[in-house]
Specification:
about 300 residues, alpha+beta, Phosphorylase Kinase, domain 1, Transferase(Phosphotransferase), domain 1, 2 domains, 6-stranded antiparallel beta sheet, 3-stranded antiparallel beta sheet, 11 strands, about 35% helix
């Protein structure tokens, strides 16, 4: 029976007649992530429970289609999706691999910027994940430091997750079926903000924001912007502060790669995640050649 006021599952509750909810791991605007026991296979999993749908008709179909798209991307740098379903008919959930570690966002907030080599390796992992997704014609559209997971010990494995805003690129939709802007405002590409056609180059921009945050400890948009209109204006019109102004240890050749990834115009960016990955790997090789593989000075 459909609940008039759908609720989140409780600790101890059995979700989908299989997943025993054990504890909440994280909470945010896009839902709650729980640790759960998969009683069918005897393994611990992560269950992300999303906000309830207003109605349970077409939203069901769209959600399951998005899940199938994401689950079709098989790559070590992409979070595996094991299952999907609905709690009380209107509360969707995803069952994923349970990872140990932290997000890049939390790592930077707690410990400051990564080394230059560490930052480049993390962003290379993100690009590899995007390559795999784009090969399946899946756009992420919300690439940001909070969606990049570093397994313990930090950085041993880089995993891109939260493909909840993914979109089949072959459908050539501008933003969504309803024309609604989606994504995290501060990390949107300019074309997303403007409601224009979005393709893989928007994800390249997202990878650039990841590199910028990892290298500098700062966001690529100015802090202190309170109104979303101010954030959007900065994304579309204000030049990005070069990373070296935040962290002088960032080499010039690395800064050049990051700024190209963050170009306002999609035509001026790297044209694919693969092209950005290659540039990052070349920058990493140059940095290691100059400073050694254990260099922490950036």
């Amino acid at each position: 029976m459909t609940s008039a006021n759908p609720r989140l599952p409780r600790v101890g509750e059995l979700l989908g007649e299989r997943y025993r909810i054990e504890r909440a791991l994280a909470r945010g605007g896009m839902g709650v992530v729980y640790e759960a026991l998969d009683e069918g296979l005897g393994r611990r999993v992560a269950v992300k429970v999303l906000p309830p749908f207003a109605r349970a008709d077409q939203a069901h179909t769209r959600f399951l289609r998005e899940c199938r798209l994401t689950a079709s991307v098989h790559h070590p740098n992409v979070i595996p999706i094991y299952d999907a379903g609905f709690h009380e008919e209107r509360v969707p959930y995803l069952v994923m691999e349970r990872l140990e570690g932290t997000t890049l966002e939390k790592q930077v907030k707690a410990h400051g910027p990564l080394s230059v080599s560490g930052s480049l390796r993390v962003t290379v992992g993100v690009c590899a994940a995007l390559e795999a997704a784009h090969a399946r014609e899946v756009l992420h559209r919300d690439v940001k430091p909070a969606n990049v997971f570093l397994t313990a010990p930090p950085g041993e494995r880089v995993v891109l997750f939260d493909f909840g805003l993914s979109l089949d690129a072959s459908r050539r939709t501008r933003i969504t079926d309803q024309g609604v802007v989606v994504g995290t405002p501060a990390y949107m590409a300019p074309e997303q903000v403007l409601g224009r056609f979005v393709d893989a180059r928007a994800d390249v921009f997202g990878a650039g924001t990841v590199a910028y945050r990892a290298l500098t400890g700062q966001r690529h948009v100015p802090d202190g912007l309170r109104e979303i209109t101010e954030v959007f204006d900065a994304i579309v019109h204000q030049p990005i502060i070069p990373p070296r102004q935040h962290n002088p240890r960032v080499p010039e050749h690395v800064e050049a790669v990051v700024l190209r990834a963050l170009a306002k115009s999609p035509e001026q960016r790297f044209q694919s995640a693969q092209a950005l990955r290659v540039a990052l790997e070349e920058a990493l090789a140059e940095h290691v050649a100059r400073h050694g593989s254990s260099a922490q000075g950036g």
